[in-house]
Amino acid sequence: MAAAAVAAPSVSIRRTARGIIVVDDGEHIRALEPFSGHASGGTWYAGAVNSYRDAMPADVNVYCMVIPTAVEFYCPEEARTWTVAEKPVIDNIYASLSPAVHAIDVYSVLQAHAGEPIYARTDHHWSPLGAYYAAGEFARVAGVCFSPLANYERKVVRDFVGSMYYYSKDPAVKNDPEEFVYYVPQDSSYITTYIGHNMGRNRKVTGITAPFQGPFFISYKDGSSSAYCTFMGGDTRTTHVATKSETGRNLLVIKDSYGNALPGYLFDAFDDIHVVDFRYFTRNIVDYVRDNNITDILLVNNLQHAYAQTTSTALMKMLGKS
Asked: Is 217:190 a contact under the CB 8 Å cutoff?
């Protein structure tokens, strides 16, 4: 007698009061933030990136990386009406870029690896593995060296439950923690220097600290909900990593929190890596590029931030054009 077919596990989908999509595939819970943009939108972000290209010397390379969020790859078909397709929006942004800007197509790279844990299940960020694949695509376009993952030390924070429990308030998210896995270069000869931003009400910067040295990778205990702050301690610092590479190229990353996980894969590719967050950086960016001999600028945002017009406004303010 033939063996009975094994039924596919049923998928349970619900939407919380805050609009978060919670998916239970019978094995794990995944919480997803829906996207609500329009396919014809996002041109304001491209305009801001184009302004960076226009404001910089011709020999400075400018790159644009717009990162899809987890809902694009993991939303079940039954819930697709609860979110908007992200690829048409990203395509529209890239089509609006100046030909002199290098668009980094991480969508295709991430889609090819969607069967791997490239996004957190319980957090709104991608995972360090997703950032690794994106960093590889950036390195390819930029023409710089890129080390295989086997050259990194694998580290794990267990029982991680990130921001999506806070956003969803769904106890099932809290009760299904995951591993936060990140990768540290085995060569630790780089030096990381920070300038901290003092924060006031409404997360407004009230001042900056004197430069101080510290680790790029910060260890968190198992169960910590802050594990994504492993990279540079989070967003509210300006970071400079001096490497031992001798490439003659210096990188500036202008980013949101998705960009935090990228620089650690590029220590072999650039002599100096500078990282600033558009929400907290207070200097004129053209002066910063000149003063630090920047040769390459990577503007990187997840689509939620790239689509928000407040992001473009902040980027233009950094250019002195608000």
From this structure: no
pLDDT tens digits, one per residue of 114-133? 999 999 999 999 999 999 99
Distance CA 251, CA 270 (A): 6
Distance, in Å, from the CA atom of 42 to the CA atom of 305, rounded to the nearest integer, reads 10
Give every CB contact of residue 170 below 8 A, 6+ residues apart in sequence.
14, 16, 20, 22, 29, 31
Q: How far apart are CA 75 and CA 22, in angstroms?
A: 9
Q: Residue 152 contacts by C-beta under 8 Å, 6 or more apart in sequence?
A: 183, 184, 185, 186
Task: Give dist(CA 299, CA 315) in Å, integer.
Answer: 10
30-85: pLDDT as tens digits: 999 999 999 999 999 999 999 999 999 999 999 999 999 999 999 999 999 999 99
Neighbours of 150 (CB within 10 A): 8
Q: Within 10 A of 200 (CB to CB), how many other CB atoms are there?
A: 9
CA dist 87 and 82 (Å) reads: 16
Helix (H, G, I), strand (E, B) or coil at 46: helix
**CA-CA-CA-CA dihedral for 320, 252, 127, 135, to nearest 10:** 130
Taking the C-alpha atoms of residue 288 and residue 321, their distance in angstroms, rounded to an integer, is: 15
Tokens of 193: 């220097």
Half-sphere exposure of 293 (CA within 13 A, CB side): 8
